[in-house]
Design brief:
The protein is built from 11 helices and 10 strands. The protein is α/β, with parallel strands linked by helices. Helix 5 packs antiparallel against helix 7. The protein folds into 2 domains: 160 residues, Rossmann fold (3-Layer(aba) Sandwich); 68 residues, no CATH class. The N and C termini lie far apart (39 Å). It has a 6-stranded mixed sheet with strand order 6-7-8-3-9-10, with helices on both faces. It has a 4-stranded antiparallel sheet with strand order 2-1-4-5, with helices on one face.
Amino acid sequence: MSTLVLDNVSAGYGKVDVIRGVSLAIPAGRRVALVGSNGAGKSTIVRTINGLLPLRGGSISWDGAAMGPVRASHRTRAGIGTVPEGRLLFPDCTVSENLIAATTFGEAKAKREQSLESVFGLFPRLRERAAQRAGTLSGGEQQMVAIGRALMTRPRLLVLDEPSIGLAPRIVAEIFEVLSSLTSTGLSLLLVEQNVQLSLRSVDEAYVLRQGTIVLHGEAAQLLDDPQVRAAYLGQ
């Protein structure tokens, strides 16, 4: 079982450190949220986890081994799947082509058909849209494709960057119900969200990020009742 650990991580762009001294852990089989306002540095943390942004300090380990300068593609092969903000689909390719595009290596390639059936089982609407170009889908359907594509890599950790943004509440509820069911298979989740209330009601534990640093960490239910969190993020 795999655990991702960030230890005192700093990273940024140009001369600016966007995140500073960030430490967090995603234990195997746990649902963890990283919440904070827009500009807090959440996506920067995602990019450091994925290997798209180099560390300026600290370390990241996976399965107990330091990841160092491991490339993004190798992190995917190691079992870290990502649903990026904005989905980043191939709009002129079909739903099936977008899903299959993630299966170019190892077990993902060997079990492509099995994974495809699994994704269609989770999102029956995608089976109906299999031959439709991704760019013609609704926003919710595109998000389903993005999640399905990440699942096609057969990850042990799924990182979701702002999965609810721009979606109708009904679609968000449907997607989060599927995500919740995935953890019963042993899959770990890192949910990166601005929607604090939604996040805290969907995970086991959470970290609160403010201006590039972790300011709170605890069980999600406790943070939901924390006066500081309620005042800062829930308007209560």
